[in-house]
Amino acid sequence: MSIQRAIADIRTDYSLKTLDESVIAPDAIDQFTTWWNEAIDSEIEEANVTTVATATKDGIPDARIILLKSYDKKGFVFFTNYNSVKAQELAENPKASMIFFWKELQRQVRVFGTVEKISAADNDEYFNSRPEGSRIGAWASPQSHVIADRTILDQKIEAVKAEFAGKPIPRPEFWGGYLIKPETVEFWQGRSSRLHDRIKYTRQNNNWKIERLAP
Question: Is 194 a catalytic residue?
Answer without folding.
Answer: yes
